[in-house]
Structures are given as structure tokens and as C-alpha cells.
Amino acid sequence: MSIRHGLLALLERGPRYGSRLRTEFEARTGSTWPLNIGQVYTTLARLERDGLVVQQGADEAGHVLYALTDAGRAELRSWFIRPVERSNLPRDELAIKLAMAVGAPGADVRAVVEAQRRYLSEAMHTYTRLRARSLAEAPAHRDEVARLLVLEHLIFRAEAEIRWLDHCEARLLRLAEAAATEPPPPSPPPA
């Protein structure tokens, strides 16, 4: 997730101060990816250092306002048209957990799968309720549509992970069945 580019996108609407950017970022993403205010100001300092934003005075409350530069606008346009690469995937804790559980003598892999499936089902129900509420209010504003898109992404992602867990469980069952039908290994000859 590029906080850097997310802040540039919010600044395209006009000058903003840090805590307002944080609030707008969280609203736009349905509070799915909360930001630490320190993270916002650290990112703004880097953007300023890189010539992508400039300080543009202060509002009536004394908040320092940041605005996009032409270079910031160009970087934002470039980011929007650049595909998100999936070649350097982050480590997935669930995939690692299952891979390790398969080889661990005391691990109940089916319990790991079932616990994750329950968690995802609950999360999916929450996301689905939020989406239904959002749709009932007939999203008309861009921020509402953006929030809806994020919620739908989370729903589809949870569905995909549940399908993968179903696949894992089926593979493990086939493996267990195959192991049950294999003849036992020969006993070593007596010494």
C-alpha cells in the first residue's frame, strides 16, 4: 500500500494539513488501513524533500498546509497508470503457518484451516453488512464509491482465501487417505 501516493492523490484536491489527510485517507479506504499521524507527517516530510509537495502557509487554526507541486502531479499520474506488480509478494503468514503445520508432528492442520475459515467468514459477514449499508445509502459521492470499492475488494479477497483453504483441506484429506492405504514400510532385518 503506497501511503506516499495516497497522500499525493488526496492533495490533488487542494492543500491539506496532516491530520486532515489522515482522516480523508481513512474515510476513503473505509478505515481498513488506519494511519498513524506520525506516519503521515514523516511521509509529508519525504514528499517535500523529494520536491513533490510544498508547504503552502497555514489555515486559520495554524495547521501547516501542504500542496502538490507539478512534479507531485506528474508522479501521481505515473502511479495511476503503472500496474501494481505482484512479483515481489510479501510473505503470507497463513501460507507459512500451513506449510509449517503440515510438517510439525503436534500440529492439527485441519484445526488451523478451520480457525482461519471461521475468522474469514466472520470478516466477510462484517464487510458484506458494511457494503449493504453503503449500497442502501446509494453512494453518490466519490469518497462513498471509493469506500465501497475497498469493501468489495476485501469481500472478494476473503472469498478467494476461503476457496484456497477449501483446496488445502481437500489436498490434505487426499494425502491422509493415500497414506492410510499405503502398506507399512518393511521392518528392518533383525540384528
Automatic annotation (TrEMBL):
| Stored SUPFAM superfamilies | Winged helix' DNA-binding domain
Occurrences of domain Transcription regulator PadR C-terminal (ranges): 91-172
> From what superkingdom does this record's organism come?
Bacteria
Q: Which InterPro entries match?
A: Tscrpt_reg_PadR_C, Tscrpt_reg_PadR_N, WH-like_DNA-bd_sf, WH_DNA-bd_sf
Question: Which Pfam families does its entry note?
Answer: PadR, Vir_act_alpha_C
Q: What are the Transcription regulator PadR N-terminal domain coordinates in residue numbering?
A: 7-77
Q: What's the protein here called?
A: PadR family transcriptional regulator
